[in-house]
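User: Fold this; tokens only.

Assistant: Input:
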Amino acid sequence: MKERGKLTVYTGPMYADKTTHLIGHAKEAGDNGIVFKPSLDDRFGGGDYIRSHNGEAHQAVLFDAKKPAEILKEIAKLEGISQAIIDEIQFCASDVVTILEKLLVQGLNVIVAGLDLDSEKNWFGSMQEIIEMADKVVNLTADCDGCGGDATLTYSKVPKEGVVAVGAGDLYGAACESCYGGLSKS
């Protein structure tokens, strides 16, 4: 019987270098790892790459965030995979929690990144459950757009409808708790 894999979660606001950490893990894993990203993430020109705000990129397999079981199907096609890396996991349907559990039971180490909270300060997607099941959680911060201090929140720069509006610096910024109210337009 295979030893259960470990789940590591990188979380925090926009611009906290979550994807940069995933790219580092992907490079370290080499051929033993596979990287996934939801196809709805079309920032930075879209395509089959995860891209950080600082310009780093790494090839990724696109999947439909509404059908995270596609991750299992892709991994089943490959041999020698010991690590699954998933970016922007907050966009995934709630059954992603079950998919993560299946990967862990198969012995894969899983590293994910996502916003813990949306721009309204509510849990984003299944992030609360994912964090609760994690073996390791890395809470990252960004620089606050207001004061330059540690930002733990994402704020909306423009009024928006709905929770999911994929965007970058044009739509979102990072804020500390003190500056959030004065910056947020949501």
